[in-house]
Design goal:
Length: 330
């Protein structure tokens, strides 16, 4: 049935449109009997309020935007689930868009968010993002922006991060404890702050505790590239005795290479990664990894957003701590 209008309810009940509207909102000036009659008829006629009209009038949509590079990523999937769960509890809906790591797509998505009058935005920036003006425009419109995972290096924004420096240090120390001498360290796109922080921390840990370790660094951006880099390294002599994978997509590519060459983990090659937790459990033996939880990050990000929406004090930067999860791969 088509959405009934306030006018239709008014005509059937023989009362004014304003009375119908106030009755539906439980206005104290309207009697309980009138409220009951209006609500019973509204339910029978499947009346639904015109939310867009309400948005235009109040400039409030109870809609939050969520921008990720890609939805088909286990880390972002768990982050989205956590945010959506808490948003629903607090009466918000979530509009999800993906940039596919293209700044033009990202900018177009930000325009859509503005047109839909979002009240706040969660954002993980694309690898091409340099100009923060589109995000500052939202802030100027009193729409808080909370960056997560892939955060801007610019000051003045709220950021919710994984403990990237700590995660890389923990992974490096685990490798050093196993007395590995030839390390292939695979990181993400070198443009991203998360890559810079993890790479610097990883190398700094070796310089401090095991300076004679040979470390080869590469920056594969996807599964296929990490597979190619790993195959090339594993076919060389002497090959690395351990591979560090900065993220799950890199780990998947590396494991493709390991299986293709029929190498045994950890006898022929040791593996350690930084992960959300699901992918390492899919291999035998399970991969040793430093946990960086998308779910925990999502919970923290929503708490940060809620503080902003309520005009409560909120730290500019907060972090989720990391921990080593032992598998059998190192």
């Amino acid at each position: 049935m088509q959405q009934s209008t306030l006018k239709k309810l008014s005509e059937v009940l023989g009362i004014s449109i304003s009375t119908v509207s106030r009755a539906l909102k439980d206005h104290p000036d309207i009697s309980d009997s009138t409220k009951s009659r209006v609500k019973e008829l509204a339910a029978a006629l499947e009346y639904e309020p015109n939310n867009y009209a309400v948005q235009l009038r109040t400039r409030q949509s109870n809609l939050l935007g969520l921008l990720v590079p890609s939805i088909d990523n286990f880390f972002y999937d768990s982050f989205i689930a956590a945010v959506e769960e808490d948003a629903r509890i607090h009466g918000y809906s979530v509009m999800i868009m993906q940039s596919r790591d293209k700044v033009l797509t990202e900018t177009a998505n930000l325009q859509l968010f503005r047109k839909n009058m979002i009240m706040g935005l969660f954002a993980a920036i694309s690898i091409e993002t340099e100009d923060m003006a589109p995000f500052r425009k939202l802030e100027d419109m009193k729409v808080p922006v909370v960056f997560f995972d892939r955060v801007t290096e610019a000051e003045g924004f709220h950021k919710v991060c994984l403990a990237d420096e700590e995660a890389a240090r923990i992974a490096a120390e685990a490798i050093i404890d196993k007395k590995k001498k030839r390390v292939l360290a695979l990181f993400g796109h070198p443009h991203l702050s998360i890559t810079k922080i993890r790479c610097e921390s990883f190398q700094r840990t070796f310089e401090k505790h095991a300076p004679k370790t040979k470390i080869t660094v590469a920056y594969p951006e996807n599964i296929q590239e990490s597979k190619r880099v790993a195959l090339e390294a594993l076919r060389s002599k002497p090959r690395p005795d351990v591979i560090f994978c900065m993220g799950d997509m890199i780990l998947i590519g590396v494991m493709y290479a390991v299986h293709k060459l029929k190498l045994k983990v950890p006898d022929d090659i040791a593996i350690i990664g930084i992960s959300n937790g699901l992918i390492p459990t899919m291999y035998d033996p399970k991969i040793t990894y430093v946990e960086t939880s998308g779910h925990k990050l999502g919970k923290l990000a929503f708490a940060q957003m809620l503080s902003c929406l309520r005009n409560e004090p909120a730290a500019e930067k907060v972090m989720v701590e990391s921990m080593l999860i032992e598998g059998g791969s190192l």
